[in-house]
């Protein structure tokens, strides 16, 4: 729909009665129902909105149950004493329940593209706290499948944007004119790809072409927003299909520019590194499905492994000497530069470097099917072993195991026991050691 359209000309919604849709109140969170009923009883509108309606329609269990209403934030605070107002750009009211449960309630907003004046025409992420109607709120949302309302009075679905048809046809489509909507908020590109990957949907052609044409606008977004959306993608349980779509669109190379020229954008001719990357993403998804998602440093090290292998010939580096020292120094410098836009903490970057640097030692001893005592004593041994298992699983080996492991049983050291005052234990860094003894660059001595 053209953003210059008068508000009075907004289309009439499609109203789907209870008998014609699969959403049932028994599948809606009890606290969310309480909030909706109280809003209705106080004379306000009450709608379940966004991803909750989408997931319930698809037969999935929503992670969050968000509610929209025509009540203003101040009115909501009066109605719900157990609440607080949060947010600057989007002001929300959080309603608290026993057990730490939180239900978020937003006031229906108008779409900022409708606002008069030229000042905001090309403004990215313009201020958007202007309250509006159902239709305006629907047309300011990112995707048609996220623009549905479920209302509590008659248990109907209200559809202004064709979201139900897109759900039935398994299509992801940006609401309105894709190029303009993406320029206003480039993160919409990331959400379109994520939802297509999670639900195995097809991205509508105009939306797909707009994503490809406007990728560089993602650089205009705050790093914190891009980081948050990126980790949602990795931890969505659909990392592998997301990775394929992100590579095909080119978005993957904006998020991890180190892969430019290393992995192929053409699915018909994948490089060895491309195949390894997709296999590692499948391992990430398997662990997520089993309720054991990887911590940040292991997740990023796993994603960077094909790049490190291609860039440094990682698994064939010497274990000591000047060349290995230079490799470790260069690897840490490149990891710092490649992850700066994702605001990765220094400790995580050190752990990522340690995992990549020490992997060849685990590969060598894994082939011998033995873990020497000195290696088991290292502080990085548990993470290093898991990282090695992830790599082996990606190559077709046994599944990696994130279950807590007991401390390894180590043989006693030989020699006479020390007497007198004990020495203070030496603090051992998780970053590589460069002594050149029994492992040199890999921190094994």
From TrEMBL:
Residue ranges constituting the Poly A polymerase head domain according to the UniProt record: 46-173
Molecular function terms from GO: nucleotide binding; nucleotidyltransferase activity; RNA binding
Domain tRNA nucleotidyltransferase/poly(A) polymerase RNA and SrmB- binding: from-to ranges: 200-258
InterPro entries documented for this protein: NT_sf, PolA_pol_head_dom, PolyA_RNA-bd, tRNA_ntf/polyA_polymerase_I
GO biological process: RNA processing
Pfam families: PolyA_pol (PF01743), PolyA_pol_RNAbd (PF12627)
The name this protein goes by in its record: Poly(A) polymerase
Record's compositionally biased regions (Basic residues): 413-424
Keyword annotations: Nucleotide-binding, RNA-binding, Transferase
Region (Disordered): 399-445
Family of the protein in this entry: Belongs to the tRNA nucleotidyltransferase/poly(A) polymerase family.
């Amino acid at each position: 729909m053209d953003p210059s359209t008068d508000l009075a000309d907004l289309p009439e919604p499609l109203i789907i009665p209870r008998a014609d849709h699969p959403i049932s109140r028994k599948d809606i969170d009890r606290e969310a129902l309480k909030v909706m009923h109280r809003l209705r009883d106080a004379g306000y509108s009450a709608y379940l909105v966004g991803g909750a309606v989408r997931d319930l329609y698809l037969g999935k269990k929503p992670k969050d149950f968000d509610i929209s209403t025509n009540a203003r934030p101040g009115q909501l605070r009066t109605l719900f004493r157990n609440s607080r107002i949060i947010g600057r750009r989007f002001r929300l009211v959080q309603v608290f329940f026993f057990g730490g449960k939180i239900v978020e309630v937003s006031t229906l907003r108008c779409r900022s593209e409708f606002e008069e004046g030229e000042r905001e025409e090309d403004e990215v992420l313009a201020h958007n706290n202007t309250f509006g109607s159902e239709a305006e709120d629907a047309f300011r949302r990112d995707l048609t499948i996220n623009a549905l309302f479920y209302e509590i009075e008659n248990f109907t679905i209200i559809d202004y944007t064709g979201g139900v048809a897109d759900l039935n046809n398994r299509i992801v489509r940006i609401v309105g004119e894709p190029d303009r909507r993406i320029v206003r908020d480039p993160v919409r590109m990331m959400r379109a790809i994520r939802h297509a990957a999670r639900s195995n949907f097809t991205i509508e052609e105009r939306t797909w072409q707009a994503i490809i044409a406007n990728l560089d606008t993602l650089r205009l977004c705050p790093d914190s927003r891009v980081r948050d959306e990126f980790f949602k993608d990795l931890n969505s349980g659909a990392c592998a299909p997301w990775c394929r779509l992100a590579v095909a669109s080119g978005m993957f190379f904006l998020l991890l520019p180190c892969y430019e020229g290393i992995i192929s954008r053409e699915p018909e001719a994948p490089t060895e590194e491309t195949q390894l990357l997709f296999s590692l993403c499948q391992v990430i998804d398997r662990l997520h499905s089993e309720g054991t998602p990887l911590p940040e440093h292991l997740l990023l090290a796993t994603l960077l492994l094909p790049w490190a292998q291609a860039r440094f010939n990682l698994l064939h580096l010497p274990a000591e000497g000047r060349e290995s020292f230079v490799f470790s120094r260069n690897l840490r410098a490149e990891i710092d530069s490649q992850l700066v836009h994702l605001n990765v903490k220094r400790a995580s970057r050190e752990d990522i470097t340690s995992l990549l640097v020490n992997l060849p030692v685990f590969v060598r001893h894994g082939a011998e099917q033995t873990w020497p005592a000195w290696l088991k004593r290292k502080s990085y041994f548990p993470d290093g072993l898991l990282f090695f298992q992830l790599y082996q699983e990606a190559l077709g080996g046994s599944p990696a195991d994130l279950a807590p492991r007991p401390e390894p049983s180590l043989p006693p050291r030989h020699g006479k026991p020390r007497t007198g005052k004990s020495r203070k234990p030496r603090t051992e860094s998780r970053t590589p050691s460069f002594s050149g003894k029994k492992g040199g660059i890999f921190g094994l001595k």
